[in-house]
Amino acid sequence: MESGQSTKKEAGRKVRRTAAIGLSLVMASAVLSACSGGTADKPENRVLRIGMMYGSPDQEQWIRQQYTDTYEFTHQNIELQFEYAINYNDMRGQNGEQQPDPYEKFKELLTGKNPVDVVIADYSNLPRMTQDGLLKELDPLITKDKFDISDYVPTVIDGIKAVGDNKIYVLSPTFSSSALFYNKKIFQKAGVQPPTDNMTWQQVFDLARKVSGGEGADQVYGMTINRWGGSDLYSDVSTYVQPLQLKIFDDKAEKMLVDSGTSWSNAIKTILDLYKVKAIPNQEGYQKLSEALNKKYEKASKEGANNYNPFQGDLFGSGNIAMTVADYGYISQMKSNNNYASQNKDFTPVDWDVVTAPVFEEKPGIGGNSYLSQPLGINNKAQNADDAWDFIKFLNSKEWAKLKSRSTYEIPARAEFIKPIDGMQYNIKAFYTLKPIPPDTSNMQDIYTKYPGLNEMYSISQQLFQEAATGKKTPEEVVKEWAVKGNALLKKVKANPKGTDQGGATTEGGTATEKEKVDAAAGNG
User: Which of 21, 85, 24, 28 lies closest to 53 in space, CA to CA?
Assistant: First the structure.
């Protein structure tokens, strides 16, 4: 669900603020007439304060371009101010240092002397926020204003109600999710029926085994767990079991849970078996195939052909992967790939389509790595609740959904405006049929903030999984040793809560964010 965020940030950097204002001018009259109402008299000037858990002033330009410029243009008496509980700039270079509790800092924005009005929340925090009474219920306001949300897709509305005990505390104008992309030609050539919606992981794995084959640059793998492929075993297993929400240790960080059943060992065995029959590429297989393709293009170059490989690192795009789980933004990448391939005789466009991401039998209808882009709620202690609701209605209006329907990386929440990009033909419903994975209701984030040394769990896990990948240990042996070493780490961090970080996941900018650390430690990476 982070890759989608980094994609948006990159897009934001490329979009100039003047362009956003220009777009606002185009949309202003329609949106204003539908969402504001105004009077002939000059309205009084007011301030609307928006609170976010994470952010920084240098990122604010992108947020304003995406969400607030149009509103400010059509509501020129409203001044929008942003407040951040955790400033990203303050976190740089603080490797291993104990960080302030993000949730508690966020609560201060909502309950302090000058509380914010609008809350832009992270989906994972919504269960706790509703339980703590921090957000105003929106159902009465929706009913009072007859604000129609009947066309919100299941991925959004079911996800919202799931974190609010079937009540609505936030609305999200857009979302993103993943689906299973598949190569039609590979299935036709193998004489195998392609995947369909609502297939289980085991059914998809069976298909992957049937269509795998070939060698060298013509090697075809049945699937990859994510679009990049070549992941290490720990990453593949963690991604695979994410809908099951398996725990590594308990909610008090006192005992390892990986050996409390067979779920972890079975998951490791499942992925290892797919590696062995070359249905999924392991790191070595991925590297060999990439090298074979590079040699192919180098040879073609010597013969006078174009040796530029637009699919570098994208084996689905090169036609070597039958199926891959990828996010909505991958459609634009495939469109670009195929446009290039259609103009160069050395490449063949991929004839593809999508179906819903695989699901587990015990978790039907849940999956697809869905996330709500910007859940918007009203602080229960808002000083300007009326404008906060007006702002939320504005960003969730049909006019705004129509504007956002042009996006190539996020999807409008309203079904009426969800259409294939640029008139392309593909199963767009695959992206909004499944329900999102429910947020973890445990206090894992608090635990990780309290015990920063838990980051070492990531290194322990990855090392043991690597030994399974190389055949040095069986899945059962990995889980057994994982529990022993993990329990020793839990005991160590309890004895020394402020112990320094011993390694683990890092981001491009250095230390992993608190959320990334928690995901890695809890097995949700």
Answer: 85
